[in-house]
Amino acid sequence: MLKLIINADDFGYSRAVNYGIMDAHKMGILTSTTLMTNMPGAEHAVKLAKENDTLGVGVHLVLTCGRPLIQGHKTIISESGDFKKLSFYEQDFQVDLQEVYKEWKAQIEKFLSFGLIPTHLDSHHHINSFGNIYNVFLKLAKEYNLPIRNNIKKEVYDISKEFKSTDFFGGELNEAIVNVINLENSFKDYETVEIMCHPAYVDQFLLKSSSFVFPRLEELEILTDKRINEDIKGSKNIKLISYRDL
């Protein structure tokens, strides 16, 4: 039987994102999410999480969106004091890994201060897999004894024989779920599959701050589609889980 985790990134980004994620869970097949503790909707997300404890919630570590929790960084922030953009990390870059460690540790500690128990760690824009940042990511995972998203190069950390992580955007999500239902392509070769997604409603903050907006609505519609829900939840070959079940 295939164990299936469907994880929504960006919990805490904004109220509209939070409500979209919660509806994808309560009315759909979403089982898991990861919280951005540095974003404006973080406390609202925590309130929703505590009211809906069937949703697994992990930590979405951030280096490329919003502002850091700790002041005094030199290499991971722009002149405005915001985190540097993804484009900085897509080129040759140099950052102080100790700054990354201190900031990410602060983000995890803030998560814990909310009274939530994290299910796992992943990162915004997969930034944990860029350069040598994976060293910090793995160090914190070991320190807090938490599972991680399997998106690091195999020669460093390979659990791919049992676990596959994959992300889809907008309409791609529908094809991915259909392939899972039919156990097609490479999905059948793994014990556990995580499908990453970004369901949301839209508000002004999301419109002004993100380049990925309206496809989130499409993902929400797919995750709450009646036919898809019946096929997934009624399947004898698929078991919906969250990271807390690993």
UniProtKB/TrEMBL annotation:
Its cofactor is Mg(2+). It is an enzyme of class 3 (hydrolase). Its EC number is 3.5.1.-. InterPro entries: COD_ChbG_bac, Glyco_hydro/deAcase_b/a-brl, YdjC-like. The keyword Metal-binding applies. The keyword Metal-binding applies. GO terms for molecular function: deacetylase activity; hydrolase activity, acting on carbon-nitrogen (but not peptide) bonds, in linear amides; metal ion binding. It comes from the Bacteria. Keywords: Carbohydrate metabolism, Hydrolase, Magnesium, Metal-binding. It holds the Pfam family YdjC. Mg(2+) binds at H60, H124. GO terms for biological process: polysaccharide catabolic process. Homodimer. Probably catalyzes the deacetylation of acetylated carbohydrates an important step in the degradation of oligosaccharides. PANTHER family: CARBOHYDRATE DEACETYLASE, YDJC DEACETYLASE FAMILY MEMBER. Belongs to the YdjC deacetylase family. HAMAP family: COD (MF_01246). This is Carbohydrate deacetylase. The lineage of its organism: Bacteria, Bacillati, Bacillota, Clostridia, Eubacteriales.
